[in-house]
Amino acid sequence: MAKEKHALKFTDLLAKPIKNRRVVREELEKVRAANDEGLLVPEEVVEAAKSPNNPLHERFEWDDSIAGPLYRVEQARSIIRGVITFISDDQEETPVRRYVSLLPDRCREGGGYRDAQDVARKADLLKELEQTAKHDIDALLRRYSILKDFCKMVRQTLGIPSE
Q1: Are 45 and 91 found together in one domain?
Q2: Same domain for 74 and 143
Q3: Of 111, 109, 131, 110, nearest to 119 (Cα)?
Q4: How far is CA 163 from CA 39, 67, 160, in A?
Q5: Model confidence over 15-51: pLDDT tens digits?
Q6: With CB atoms counted within 10 Å of each terminal CB, which end of the chain scores lower, N or C?
Q7: Considering 10, 41, 60, which residue would you say is the last residue of a domain?
Q8: Which among 41, 60, 79 is the end of a domain?
Q9: Neighbours of 100 (CB within 10 A)
Q10: Count of domains in the chain?
């Protein structure tokens, strides 16, 4: 039997840097194993991490005066992503997100979203949106890389080079 690979890549935007990936993985596995359905449930991870002795404890911001504003920023992002508008042609109306996040905007502190209609009217921004879409599709394909044949077919169909 082939050895399972644990090549996890952690990306922290708001969290603290990970010191020991193996320990984090092991603690998450403990929480998952304790779940009756074998699920890793975020609320259960938080509950386990409340103990100062748990290695995950230091990964969380326990000061509510700091965590509260960060959570509200996440809520704002969710609200922004939830606004839908419609684009129409002679045949149909298609729902799309009203605000889009372009790669260059994601790289600036705090991120940012642009009005999709403004992006659609400007060739340079439309090109940036295309690059962002390719980036996001590539990330999605990497996330589901366990589905090798499916990912290969999608990459070929969309003309996205393999990793």
Answers
A1: no
A2: yes
A3: 131
A4: 30, 36, 9
A5: 455 667 888 889 999 999 999 999 999 999 999 999 9
A6: N
A7: 60
A8: 60
A9: 21
A10: 2
Distances (CA, A) of 70 to 7, 8, 63, 67: 29, 25, 11, 5
The helix (run of H) or strand (run of E) holding residue 120 is helix 116-121
What's the pLDDT band for 158 if we cut at 50, 70, 90? confident
Do 141 and 72 sit in the same domain of this protein?
A: yes
CA–CA separation, 41 and 35 (whole Å): 8
The answer to whether residues 87 and 31 belong to one domain is no
Task: Return the number of other C-beta atoms located less than 10 Å from residue 1's C-beta.
Answer: 3
What pLDDT digit, counting tens, does each position of 72-81 carry? 999 999 999 9
Query: In the numeric block, which tokens belong to residue 54?
Result: 């748990």
Where would I find the H helices in 35-147? Answer: 42-49, 64-81, 103-107, 116-121, 123-143
Quick one: which of 52, 103, 111, 104 has its CA closest to 76? Answer: 111
Q: How far is CA 127 from each of CA 59, 66, 87, 139, rounded to the nearest angstrom?
A: 38, 37, 18, 18
My answer on whether 151 and 94 are in the same domain is: yes
Residue for token digits 């603690």? Answer: 27
